[in-house]
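Input record, target 12 of the design panel.
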């Protein structure tokens, strides 16, 4: 027997799965997918280094612009 992990994106699909279970065609197993893994660890190495460098440059530039903005208050 195969086991599959399915993410429900519509409540109609959830109802359909329960109906299939009632027909003894499948067995629904509940598992909350919660990760203790940091996002930085999860996505480390996912971007090519040249794109990551460009993104880092853009973020740094945006932060500098934000910090150096001139706000006129009345």
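The sequence produced for target 12 reads:
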């Amino acid at each position: 027997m195969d086991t599959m992990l399915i993410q429900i994106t519509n409540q109609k699909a959830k109802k359909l799965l329960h109906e299939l279970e009632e027909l003894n065609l499948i067995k629904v197993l509940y598992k909350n997918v919660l990760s203790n893994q940091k996002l930085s660890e999860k996505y480390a190495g996912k971007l090519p280094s040249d794109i990551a460098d460009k993104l880092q440059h853009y973020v740094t530039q945006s932060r500098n612009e934000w910090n150096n903005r001139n706000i006129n208050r009345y």
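Residues 49-67 form the longest helix (19 residues).
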